[in-house]
Amino acid sequence: MNDQFTTLLSEMTFIERQYEFRNPDVVLYHPGHYTELNEQIITLFHEEGFKTIMIPSVPNAFLNANEFIFHKEILVKSGIPQELVIPITGEANTANDVIKNAMLLLSKTTENKNILLAGKTFFMKRFLLIATAFATNNMTIDILPLQDNRNLTKDTWHLTDIGRRRVWNEYHMISKFLKENCP
């Protein structure tokens, strides 16, 4: 891969927080099995606060547990009130389905208008794309890219096989979303 190619893919894949708001109404949190991401959520809570955090209630083979139950326990032990931590429910085979379910639920409420999407750095453009597809016009959506222990950043993703696979997969999953939801 030449430098121009990796730069273009980096710009198309990675995005930074825009700071559209502080103290979000809702944080949609997609941790997967990366427990180190919880520290960044705990920091967010103590520095800015949030009214609610939603975590996918799905089985995770790497954790050998339900993601919601697993991560909620860590967050609550770290000082986040348990009533603020709620599950994202509904049938979900992919992260795309989880995002859609969460946004459809939030679109039915009147109080959840500032939504912060929190997930792995390379996943944020897809997260934002899918969330905005199901958002209402009165919602403001921002993102919080979280760094896991693989250190896949805009500048380093192309240096490892796992980084390249993760970025290629983003394009596959975006294509899949568009085919299924935007005929």
UniProtKB/TrEMBL annotation:
Domain of life, source organism: Bacteria
Name this polypeptide is given: DUF218 domain-containing protein
Species annotation: Bacillus pseudomycoides
